[in-house]
Amino acid sequence: MTASRALRSLALAALAMLAAGPGLAQRGGDPSGTWLTESGARVRVARCGGGYCGTLASTTGSGLDVNNPDPALKSRKLVGVQILTATAPSGDGFEGSLYNPNDGKTYSGSMTPKGPDHLAVAGCVLRVLCKSQTWTRVK
Question: What is the top-level taxon of the source organism (predicted)?
Fold first, then answer.
């Protein structure tokens, strides 16, 4: 194979990979945006690294991280705290971790887009005992 032919093959492969990305977003696979949780908080999800991160944009209740096990963080405001790190692609979604301000614990978790307006989010203990929520996109 000539160098020219090898470069052309590489360029075509790269182009095919780029073309696959928008297809996911068009099918509702891109979870970037603001989401309403089942408890009424809002989470802003954005690209970070090879996946997505979610930061609290609004909360219900006191708005303070009172359940955090670190005494120094119990008085911090929850708005602006990153609660979702989902940077490992897995199936139709991403795996990572979730911080739950209601109990101050971090869980292994997953995030899977379900169409353009819903996001399935699950947090698990030992990857066996899981709780899930369906978040709704804020328009």
Answer: Bacteria
pLDDT, tens only, 84-133: 999 999 988 999 999 999 999 999 999 999 999 999 999 998 867 889 99
Phi then psi for residue 61, to 5 deg, are 80, -150
* Inter-residue contact 87 to 107 (CB < 8 Å): no
Expressed in angstroms, the distance from the first to the final Cα of the chain is 52
CATH architecture of 31-137: Beta Barrel (2.40)
Hey, where are the domains in the chain? 1-29, 31-137
Residues 77-91, buried b or exposed e (16+ Cβ, 10 A)? ebeebebbbbeeeee
